[in-house]
């Protein structure tokens, strides 16, 4: 029963539905009570009480539901307590109690739910869990989340010997973790996140020999990790992100033989990675984003399995070791906003497995090494805000596997080199905010695989090469905020695959090519804020696939050509800021086409 907003009570006779196996009461906001006869539903296996705001109590007879296996109580904001005999639900295996804003305690009898395998608790006023929780001998999953007033976990949690997954999240008043936590020797997944007060983990945490995943993220006061963490020989993923007070990691981490993923992003005070890191022969990923103080140990090059290295926002990183070439399996290298990085070592060309290289925000990087052309597997290269980069090396044209190239906000870059046309597998080329670029190289017409070309904020760009018409795979052409661009070459009309043409905010663009109607695949055309545009060619009426036309702010355009009435698929024309005649014609055309589509 969903959104029965006026339902205040269930009839007493509901107890006669003795074959009922599932009852869901969702968003019954006026429901104040359940009848005692509900206990007669002895076949009921699933009961869901979701967003029943006025429900203030449950009848004691609920414990007579001998077959009940799953009980969900969510968002019952008036529910202040559960029946003392709640633990008599002997068949219950799954219990969820969340977002009940006045429920402060669970009954002690909850420990009698000996078949319970999953318990999910999250209520704002709840300060403790009952000691009896240790009696849940079958419990496999325990989630305590969104209990901001919870200040401790009971010592008896260590008695949950069947527990394989424990999550404690967004419990801001939780100050300590009980030492008995380490008795959970069968635990496989441990998550303690967004709990800001704990300053340390239990010393014997290394005794959790079955643990494969540990997430201790956003624990603001956590300063150190116990040495015993090195005993977690089965751990494959360790997440310490946003633990802002952690300054060092124990050398014992080198003994975590199964570790594959190490996440340290946001550990702003971490000064270095442990020298023992080289022992982690299975480690494939290190995420050190935002570790502003962190330096790279020389041993990082001894990680034979490493495929991803994220050093984004490591703003004190001045150089990469020459021996980085030893990371022969590295596929992704992130150096975003490494603002003090001055150069890349020549040896970087030996990273023959590298597929992605991000150099955005490397403000001090003045050149790229000639060996970069040896990155035979490189598919994506981004160069944004490299403000001192004055030129690109010729060898860049040797990147035969490159499919994506982004060059933006490189203020010192005055030209795009001709050899860019050698990138025969390039599919996406984005050139943004290069204020010194006056033209694109003619060789761009050789990019036979190119499907997307974006040129934006190039205020000195005054023309496009006529070779652009050779880009037969191009589907997206965007030329925005190119203030000096006054015309498009006629060859642009040969782009038979083009579906999107955006020349918005090219304020000096005065006209479109006369043969624009030959672009039969075009569905989207943006001419917004082309302040000098005074006429549209009649051939625009031949754009049979056109669906969207943007003319916003093109105030000099006096009228739409009559040929546009042939555009039967055109259902959207934005003519804001245009002359009244243009607005009226645009509205009439759209109304006619929409009427046809709707069969009127």
From TrEMBL:
Q: Write the record's keywords in alphabetical order, separated by commas.
A: Repeat
Write down the Gene3D superfamilies for this protein, in alphabetical order.
Ribonuclease Inhibitor (3.80.10.10)
Record InterPro entries = LRR_dom_sf (IPR032675), LRR_R13L4/SHOC2-like (IPR055414)
Q: Which domain of life is it from?
A: Eukaryota
A Pfam entry, by short name:
LRR_14
The Disease resistance R13L4/SHOC-2-like LRR domain covers 104-193, 258-384
Under what name is this protein listed?
Answer: Disease resistance R13L4/SHOC-2-like LRR domain-containing protein
Which organism is the protein's source?
Answer: Tribonema minus
Q: What is the lineage of its organism?
A: Eukaryota, Sar, Stramenopiles, Ochrophyta, PX clade
């Amino acid at each position: 029963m969903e959104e029965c907003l006026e339902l205040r009570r269930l009839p007493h006779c509901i107890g006669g539905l003795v074959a009922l196996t599932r009852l869901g009461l969702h968003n019954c906001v006026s429901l104040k009570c359940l009848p005692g006869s509900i206990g007669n539903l002895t076949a009921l296996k699933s009961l869901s009480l979701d967003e029943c705001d006025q429900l203030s109590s449950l009848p004691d007879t609920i414990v007579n539901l001998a077959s009940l296996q799953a009980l969900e109580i969510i968002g019952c904001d008036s529910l202040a307590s559960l029946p003392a005999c709640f633990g008599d639900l002997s068949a219950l295996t799954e219990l969820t109690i969340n977002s009940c804003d006045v429920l402060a305690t669970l009954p002690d009898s909850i420990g009698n739910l000996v078949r319970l395998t999953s318990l999910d608790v999250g209520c704002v006023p709840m300060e403790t869990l009952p000691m009896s929780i240790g009696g849940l001998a079958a419990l496999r999953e325990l989630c305590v989340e969104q209990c901001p007033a919870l200040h401790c976990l009971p010592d008896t949690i260590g008695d949950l010997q069947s527990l394989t997954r424990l999550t404690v999240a967004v419990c801001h008043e939780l100050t300590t973790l009980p030492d008995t936590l380490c008795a959970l020797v069968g635990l496989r997944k441990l998550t303690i996140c967004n709990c800001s007060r704990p300053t340390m983990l239990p010393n014997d945490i290394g005794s959790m020999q079955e643990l494969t995943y540990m997430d201790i993220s956003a624990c603001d006061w956590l300063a150190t990790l116990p040495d015993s963490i090195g005993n977690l020989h089965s751990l494959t993923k360790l997440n310490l992100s946003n633990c802002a007070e952690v300054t060092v990691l124990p050398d014992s981490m080198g003994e975590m033989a199964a570790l594959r993923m190490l996440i340290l992003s946001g550990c702003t005070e971490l000064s270095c990675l442990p020298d023992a890191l080289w022992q982690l022969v299975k480690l494939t990923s290190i995420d050190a984003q935002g570790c502003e103080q962190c330096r790279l140990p020389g041993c990082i090059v001894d990680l034979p399995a490493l495929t991803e290295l994220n050093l984004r926002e490591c703003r004190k990183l001045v150089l990469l070791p020459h021996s980085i070439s030893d990371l022969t399996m590295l596929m992704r290298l992130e150096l975003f906003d490494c603002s003090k990085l001055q150069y890349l070592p020549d040896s970087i060309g030996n990273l023959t497995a590298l597929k992605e290289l991000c150099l955005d925000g490397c403000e001090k990087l003045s050149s790229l090494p000639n060996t970069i052309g040896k990155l035979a597997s490189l598919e994506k290269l981004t160069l944004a805000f490299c403000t001192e980069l004055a030129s690109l090396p010729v060898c860049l044209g040797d990147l035969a596997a490159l499919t994506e190239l982004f060059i933006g906000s490189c203020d010192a870059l005055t030209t795009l080199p001709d050899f860019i046309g050698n990138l025969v597998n390039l599919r996406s080329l984005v050139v943004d905010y290069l204020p010194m670029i006056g033209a694109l190289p003619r060789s761009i017409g050789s990019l036979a695989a190119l499907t997307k070309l974006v040129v934006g904020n190039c205020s000195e760009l005054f023309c496009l090469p006529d070779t652009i018409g050779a880009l037969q795979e191009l589907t997206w052409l965007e030329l925005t905020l190119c203030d000096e661009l006054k015309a498009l070459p006629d060859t642009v009309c040969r782009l038979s695959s083009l579906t999107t043409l955006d020349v918005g905010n090219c304020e000096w663009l005065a006209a479109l090519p006369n043969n624009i109607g030959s672009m039969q695949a075009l569905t989207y055309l943006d001419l917004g804020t082309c302040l000098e545009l005074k006429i549209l060619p009649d051939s625009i009426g031949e754009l049979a696939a056109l669906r969207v036309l943007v003319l916003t702010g093109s105030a000099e355009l006096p009228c739409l050509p009559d040929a546009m009435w042939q555009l039967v698929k055109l259902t959207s024309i934005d003519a804001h800021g245009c002359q009244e005649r243009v607005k009226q014609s645009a509205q009439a055309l759209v109304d006619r086409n929409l009427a046809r589509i709707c069969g009127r």
